[in-house]
Amino acid sequence: MSEIKNLQPQSVWKNFAALNEVPRASKKEERVIAFMQAFGANLGLETLIDAVGNVIIKKPATPGMENRQTIVMQSHLDMVHQKNGDTVFDFDTQGIEMYVDSDWVRAKGTTLGADNGMGVAAIMAVLESKDIQHPAIEALFTIDEETGMTGAMGLKGGLLEGTILLNLDTEEDDEIDIGCAGGVDVTAVRAYEVEDVPENSVGYAITVKGLNGGHSGMDIDKGLGNANKIMNRLLFGGFESFGLQVAEIDGGSLRNAIPRESNAKVIISAIFDEVFVFDMQQVIKDIKAEYKTTEPNLQILIEKTNLPAHVMDLGVQEGFIRAVYAAHNGVYRMSADMENLVETSNNVARIIVKEGKIHIGCLTRSSVESSKFDLANALRSTFELAGFEVTFSGSYPGWTPNVNSPILSVLKELYTKLHGNEPHVVACHAGLECGILGTNYPEMDMISFGPTIKGAHSPDERVSITSVQKFWAYLVEILKNIPLK
Q1: CA 329 to chain CA mean position, Å
Q2: Where are the domains of the chain?
Q3: Residue 474: which residues within 8 A CB-CB, separation 6 or more?
Q4: One GO MF term, please (predicted)?
Q5: What is the pLDDT of residues 219-257, one digit of tens each?
Q6: Architecture of 2-180+398-480 per CATH?
Q7: What are the percentages of helix, strand and coil residues in the chain, rounded to 5?
Q8: CATH code for the structural domain at 184-396
Q9: Which of 45, 170, 184, 355 allows an S-S link to 395, with CB 3.0 to 4.6 Å?
Q10: What is the pLDDT of residue 68?
Q11: For the segment 68-104, what is each residue's pLDDT rounded down to a tens digit?
Q12: Residues belonging to the active site
């Protein structure tokens, strides 16, 4: 870690390195909560943990800044845990292993945790600083942002006094975010009867891997492959032409990550053995040709394996395969009001078929609440027609842009002064916590910005070193220029 800790600005990188030594999966934040509580206490700052586990650390204004508005600096403590299939790593016990690659900091075969660890580390650096001018600060470290935003949802009104919120969770250093999408989980489940494997059957393992993956909001418009949809295309072809039967499927992982891998165990009749492999190779060739630009490392393997004990009954299987084929994945609608902004999308994130049960998990996002549920209901209808029970859960609101925000004017002016060009004022298709926090703090003026992070929610996640320097200089200047009360 010494190489990381010696990067500039050292105060940020040393805190990021310390944070990354603490396992911090969503819904498993006990250790990182204790870490942040100890950090605040060791600084002698007022530190509290609310009813759901959010950590709040308060620091008084520096001399001469007492007449400025109190600010809330906010980032989330949890990170997405993803790793490459061939990476041996235990997220529950190991710290993230980082290295420098030219201008980038990366992790060895896992997610890096720059989302949102860089924001957390920057706030930590401000809290422990002795020479940075700033108004009174309420540092808010939320939990469970990545799998439900329950930390932001559980934050009660009245705990915070700040009138301006700086959310440090944006991933392009030339952007200032003033809005984001909301989301809802769409989950389809059903049971099926297992059948004995017919005589004269051959077992095959089908593997889809090597996809880029990525953030199901920020990367949904990049034409990336979805392992679940690609796998289903293969199963559809095998079923239609050769009567393929499914024994098991394990595809995708987290609802907010574009699926990178899927694995299936299937059978076919021995009489189709050679022609099945030949025909499927043509399908694989077609799929790879379609994705040659966006997914050059895509691998699709069909290999003989031992026969499974049971398979799914054909009636349910046909409905399941056709429903997944029909389920919308990717961009559903672009915004008519903001150029190049995805308004509504869906990620077919997780598919599990095993031991008589099917589970399909989707995350539907939209910056327009009615459009979010329009797509969610389209998915619901698709799965219900195939006999699934469908539930909506974890719904959270978007953040409506305020182009007349006073703090936006401050940030735009400072960015232009520092860099000689204007920042891009945008809304994003990711889920930021600002919209949720605004439900209990409706008068709070909110803004989001951060350093450049690429490949979030995938093992290709990386953060630019020079961008962190740019972000830090900008943040320090913002703190000096918070408006008067």
Answers
A1: 16
A2: 2-180+398-480, 184-396
A3: 173, 414, 415, 418, 449
A4: metal ion binding
A5: 999 999 999 999 999 999 999 999 999 999 999 988 999
A6: 3-Layer(aba) Sandwich (3.40)
A7: 30, 30, 40
A8: 3.30.70.360
A9: 184
A10: 98
A11: 999 999 999 999 999 988 899 999 999 999 999 999 9
A12: 78, 145
